[in-house]
Amino acid sequence: MPVSDAQVLALRAFLSHATDEMAPLAYQLGDTGITGYLRLADTALSLLARRRFPRYSNADLVRYVASVRRERLSEGDAYDINPVVGEDVMRFSLGVPVLPQPPQDRLQAVIALLDALSVSELHTAADIDELLAEARVLGDQWLAGEQR
Amino acid sequence: MAVSDAQVATLRAQLAGRLDEHLRLLGQIDSASDRKAYSALVVASFCEAVERRFGRDGSAADVVDFVADVRATSNDAARKINPRAAERLIRGVYTDEDVSEVSPDQKRELYVLLLPALIGDEQFDEAALDEFLKNSRRLADQWLN
């Protein structure tokens, strides 16, 4: 199923840090829609990760994930993410194959990293719209590739 | 049971970066009681080094940064050092952090990998290193007795 307008709307709320809108929009997607939403989030993460790290070393990713954790720990231990999973999510987003990770840990890492990258890489509503348009096209291409 | 001069010399060689000498001396620690005393010295040194580095109120974020910096020194370090386990072990020295999920083998490896990094920034001269080891030895002897 291609990326829907509702999924794009929900991710726009997340990337805009519109916390009041985010939860109801994600809830309205239902079980089926949420899968596509997470795929779109993965695609957006991949695009942002490549912008942030056009070139990188392993040390860059280790330090970046640590910096994201440091920021989140200031909100409390519950906001921490698994660092090994976070580093693997970044590697995967940058095109490096990684072993499967525990789904819950992975989801938390994707949300945390997407949140952090959106703060540093997206400065205006137009930046968000541009990213979402690109992610939607790419998400549909990935889906078409999987269905072949 | 107490820590011996030879055991102190073994750890001293490692912390001074004389790895060939360290490995040669380590090979001479062969009885179970010697290994127990040497392990106590390493753990005591680790605790001593953590307290010097983080005091008693180092934040979780400070520890995250420290472990990340150590892991960022090489791909080998990044692979060998599990960040969560390392952070727990460090915070376990001065908080009630639960370290039960860190296996004994993992602890042994982490002590060895983290200890040189913990004291690395201190740039000990010979006298300061001796003082550090003297304090560690005193602590280890207390545990052994």
How does this structure look, described?
The complex is a heterodimer of chains A (148) and B (145). Chain A has one domain (5-147). Chain A contains 7 helices and no strands. The mean pLDDT of chain A is 92. Chain A is mostly helical. With 145 residues, chain B is mainly α. Chain B has one domain (5-144). In chain B, 74% of the residues lie in helices and 0% in strands. Chain B has helices at 5-15, 19-26, 32-54, 60-71, 75-80, 83-94, 104-120, 126-144. In chain B, helix 1 packs across helix 8 and helix 3 packs across helix 8 (126-144). Chain B is globular and about 35 Å long.
Quick structural summary:
Chain A has 148 residues and is an all-alpha fold. Chain A is built from seven helices and no strands. Chain B has one domain.
The chain-level mean pLDDT of chain A equals: 92
What number of domains of chain B? 1
Number of helices of chain B: 8
Task: Report the helical percentage of chain A.
Answer: over 70%
Oligomer: heterodimer
Which band does the percent of strand residues of chain B land in? under 5%
**Inertia-based shape of chain B:** globular
Number of domains of chain A: 1
Number of strand elements of chain B: 0
**Structural class designation of chain B:** mainly alpha
Spatial shape of chain A: globular
Mean pLDDT of chain B, to the nearest integer, reads: 94
Beta fraction of the residues of chain A? under 5%
Please report the total strand number of chain A as a whole number: 0
